[in-house]
Amino acid sequence: MTRVLIVDDQDLVRQGLRLILELAGLEVVGEARDGAEAVHAVAELAPDVVLMDLRMPVMDGIEATRLITAQPSPHPSARVLALTTFDVDEHVVDALRAGAVGYLLKDATADALVDAVRRAAVGEPVVAPAVLARLMANCVARPPVAATLPPGFAELSDREREVLAMIGAGRSNSEIAAALVISMATVKTHVRHIFAKLDLRDRAQAVVAARDAGLS
Questions:
Q1: Where are the domains of the chain?
Q2: In what order do the strands lie in the sheet with 49-52?
Q3: Do the Cβ atoms of 38 and 44 come closer than 8 Å?
Q4: What does the pLDDT look like over 101-123, one tens digit per residue?
Q5: Closest-CA residue to 152 (of 189, 188, 195)
Q6: What is the DSSP letter of 109?
Q7: What is the topology classification, in CATH, of domain 153-212?
Q8: Residues 3 and 46: beta-carbon distance below 8 Å
């Protein structure tokens, strides 16, 4: 069963999220009222997913996400899903850079929330459709800027860079396999090598890396 930690400074929000998740059969292992409490709770409770508000007192959700995703074993598997009322592009990028696997708005439906938590638990990137659409539109509309190559990028083969670009475009492993006419096993091998060479934890960080390198 997926174990969830809820982080929000508003009591009513936490209670509502708990009700939605528990009715869906997910286990809420704890709650935190700010980022500092969240960091301690992750170390103590080892949740699979942390539903993280971004604007909170004491420590905001971005810094808390950065600290949580940097925690060493035995708690390296906690996936952070940012959940906020603010859909500012900078917040989305900052949350993903900090290590969040996704960004969801608080006006999401209960079904969308539950689905996002389950996808986040296995490391799938989750971004609210409206936010993703605007980010893509902004990327197309803005003038090109010099790419900032991630450390280790030079070690990638041409095929690995091609796969990274497709990850950055939101393609799944099966879609990449079909587009490149290669097997799923080969795609998984390429993804594993990319993650190792760029020191990436999950696909959300790979999306950011692809963007930094100018591949998406």
A1: 3-137, 153-212
A2: 27-32, 3-7, 49-52, 79-84, 102-105, 126-127
A3: no
A4: 888 888 889 999 999 999 889 87
A5: 195
A6: -
A7: Arc Repressor Mutant, subunit A (1.10.10)
A8: yes
Q: Give backbone dihedrals phi and psi of 181, rounded to 5 degrees, phi first.
A: 55, 55
- The amino acid that residue 145 corresponds to is V
**Under 8 Å between Cβ of 6 and 54:** no
CATH class in words for 3-137: alpha beta
Q: Which two tokens stand for residue 112?
A: 């969308």
The Cα angle at residue 189 between residues 65 and 175, in degrees rounded to 5:
80
193-205 burial, b at 16+ Cβ within 10 Å, e below that, comes to bbbebbebbbbbb
What's the CA gap between 111 and 94, in Å, rounded?
26
Structure tokens at 59: 């420590």
Look at the block and give the residue holding tokens 């900078």. 90
DSSP classification of residue 202? S
CB 179 within 8 A of CB 168: no
How far is CA 211 from each of CA 33, 55, 93, 101, 145, rounded to the nearest angstrom? 33, 25, 10, 15, 11
Q: What is the mean pLDDT of each run of 10 residues along the chain (216 residues)?
A: 95 95 96 96 94 92 91 68 73 82 87 92 77 55 56 90 88 89 92 91 81 78
C-alpha–C-alpha distance, residues 120 and 144, integer Å: 31
pLDDT at 61: 93
Residue 37 CB coordination number (10 Å)? 19
